[in-house]
């Protein structure tokens, strides 16, 4: 989590090559700014860092220090440089009550020793790369870029997750709730009229199936992860649950499971998203949860996530954060993915039952990317299965008003993980736009960034207008109202289907139902 000030930047030189990471600056105090310098280590870990820090403030000061890192599982340590040669650098000694107003630079020389790293291709390690490495990274993406106060809590969560993954009683309880309460398994539905619509004049075309996550209790895939994390929180002895939400589906799912298990629930939601999703706001409150409006920044999902992280930092003893996507610091990307992996596992089983094989193409919308990763993960080692993620192009990729992170983004750090982000030349987050509140996020889960870079998955984008047309099309052809998030995946069929051989089996993840979006659609569509 980074609370940034304008014109305060950090440059780190590794082996003579400058790397720009403005997100790695954290302010802990208005008057006494402390800067945490976190250096992403890719492939090898440094035993020693020699830093020269120059700060251009009202009172210019320079300091030098050598940092020795004893713990190879942490890329930073904490305390004041002038009292114990460790990170972060504390400028209180030099600047008094003056905050920095200009950039400052850090140049580092590293001596290295080899450490295991996530493989960078399927061929190098076809099985092991499906999980992050011991540092919580997928290749260079992921990790834990968080304040030291969160490190022990995240380590505790990681240990609990791995322990409960092998706990038969926990797994039996979770499976029972998913079946009896959530309503799994969700159908794999052959969309006959939609398939007919995309047939070519010669009668050939793909067979389109919908993985009906919209039929789950609460109306989306979000309940899979919410139920599992609530059970995990109970095992950890947590009584208070917090969560962020954009479209409101994760908020509803979290409030639902908290009602089921008798847990206090607080949902952070951007004020703009609350205006777009009044029905879900009402549902959350009806379930007994508190909705806290977030007015800072763009008042959307990014800002709601930031507020939830701030809450967690100050309430670690009592609180568990049910993060709703495969984003954030390790172990969340791995944990949320595994809790949603039931989507792909069921799809494999159902495909075998229906046509005796595997899907040829999987299509899912991508905001943070949880529904897509839940579908994709089961098939990442099946090289003959094509994985397609669809982002929100908003008003168009060249308009500057979109949320196409993997299409137009650059690598950076946000909400505790390295991934692709929408950012300007100074590294500041660009306000995203999508008609879909659930896709209106300037980042993406780190495993999606990894899949993009190694070429295992492909990512495309569709505009608001195209998504609205897909919403109308599925409603009229199949009698199903898809969520506007799902509508982005459906819209890509317009470009995809004409290129596919006859009989190609396409599975689209119908991640949620569109009842929540009707008020938004009314404003844009004439029917």
From TrEMBL:
Pfam families hit by this protein: PALP
Reactions catalysed, as given in the entry: (1S,2R)-1-C-(indol-3-yl)glycerol 3-phosphate + L-serine = D-glyceraldehyde 3-phosphate + L-tryptophan + H2O
Keyword Ion transport applies: no
EC number(s) from the headed UniProt entry: 4.2.1.20
Stretches assigned to the Tryptophan synthase beta chain-like PALP domain: 184-512
PROSITE patterns: TRP_SYNTHASE_BETA
CDD domains: Trp-synth_B (cd06446)
Record's GO cellular component terms: chloroplast stroma
Pathway involvement of the protein, from the record: Amino-acid biosynthesis; L-tryptophan biosynthesis; L-tryptophan from chorismate: step 5/5
Keywords for this protein: Amino-acid biosynthesis, Aromatic amino acid biosynthesis, Lyase, Membrane, Pyridoxal phosphate, Transmembrane, Transmembrane helix, Tryptophan biosynthesis
UniProt entry tagged with the keyword Nuclease: no
Molecular-function GO term, any one: tryptophan synthase activity
Transmembrane segments: 20-39
InterPro entries: Trp_synth_b_CS (IPR006653), Trp_synth_beta (IPR006654), Trp_synth_beta/beta-like (IPR023026), TrpB-like_PALP (IPR001926), TrpB-like_PALP_sf (IPR036052)
CC cofactor: pyridoxal 5'-phosphate
HAMAP family, A to Z: Trp_synth_beta
Database matches in NCBIfam families: trpB (TIGR00263)
Protein's name in the database: Tryptophan synthase
Organism: Gossypium darwinii
Upper lineage: Eukaryota, Viridiplantae, Streptophyta, Embryophyta, Tracheophyta
């Amino acid at each position: 989590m980074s609370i940034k000030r304008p014109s305060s930047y950090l440059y780190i030189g590794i082996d003579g090559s400058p790397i720009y990471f403005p997100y790695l600056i954290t302010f802990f105090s208005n008057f006494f700014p402390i800067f945490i310098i976190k250096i992403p280590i890719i492939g090898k870990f440094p035993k020693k860092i020699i830093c020269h820090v120059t700060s251009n403030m009202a009172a210019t000061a320079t300091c030098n220090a050598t940092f020795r890192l004893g713990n190879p599982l942490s890329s930073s340590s904490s305390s004041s440089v002038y009292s114990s040669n460790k990170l972060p650098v504390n400028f209180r000694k030099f600047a008094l009550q003056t905050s920095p107003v200009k950039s400052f630079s850090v140049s580092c020389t590293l001596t290295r020793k080899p450490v295991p790293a996530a493989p960078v291709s399927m061929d190098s390690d076809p099985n092991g790369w499906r999980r992050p490495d011991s540092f919580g990274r997928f290749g260079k993406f992921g990790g834990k870029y968080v304040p030291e106060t969160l490190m022990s809590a995240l380590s505790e969560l990681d240990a609990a997750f791995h322990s409960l993954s092998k706990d038969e009683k926990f797994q039996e309880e979770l499976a029972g709730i998913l079946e009896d309460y959530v309503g799994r398994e969700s159908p794999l539905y052959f969309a006959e009229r939609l398939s007919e619509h995309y047939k070519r004049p010669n009668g050939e075309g793909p067979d389109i199936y919908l993985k009906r996550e919209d039929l789950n209790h609460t109306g989306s895939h979000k309940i899979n992860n919410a139920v599992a994390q609530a059970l995990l929180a109970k095992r950890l002895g947590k009584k208070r649950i917090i969560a962020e939400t954009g479209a409101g589906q994760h908020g509803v799912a979290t409030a639902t499971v908290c009602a089921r298990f008798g847990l206090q629930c607080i949902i952070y939601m951007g004020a703009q998203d609350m205006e777009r999703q009044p029905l879900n706001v009402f549902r959350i409150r009806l379930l007994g949860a508190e909705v806290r409006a977030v007015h800072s920044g763009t008042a959307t999902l990014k800002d709601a996530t930031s507020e939830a992280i701030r809450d967690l930092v100050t309430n670690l003893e009592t609180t568990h954060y049910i993060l709703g996507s495969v984003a954030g610091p390790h172990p969340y990307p791995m944990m949320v993915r595994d809790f949603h992996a039931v989507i792909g596992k069921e799809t494999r089983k159902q495909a075998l039952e229906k046509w005796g094989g595997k899907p040829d193409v999987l299509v899912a919308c991508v905001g943070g990317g949880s529904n897509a990763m839940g579908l994709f993960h089961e098939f990442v080692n099946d090289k003959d299965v094509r994985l397609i993620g669809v982002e929100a192009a908003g008003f168009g990729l060249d308009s500057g008003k979109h949320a196409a992170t993997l299409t137009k983004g650059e690598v950076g750090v946000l909400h505790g993980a390295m991934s692709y982000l929408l950012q300007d030349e100074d590294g500041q987050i660009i306000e995203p736009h999508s008609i879909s509140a659930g896709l209106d996020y300037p980042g993406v889960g780190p495993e999606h960034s990894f899949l993009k870079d190694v070429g295992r998955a492909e990512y495309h984008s569709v505009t608001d207008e195209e998504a609205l047309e897909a919403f109308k099309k599925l409603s009229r052809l199949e009698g199903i109202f898809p969520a506007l998030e799902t509508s982005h995946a459906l819209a890509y069929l317009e470009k995809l289907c004409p290129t596919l051989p006859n009989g190609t089996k396409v599975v689209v993840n119908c991640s949620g139902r569109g009842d929540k979006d009707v008020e938004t659609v009314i404003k844009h569509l004439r029917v």
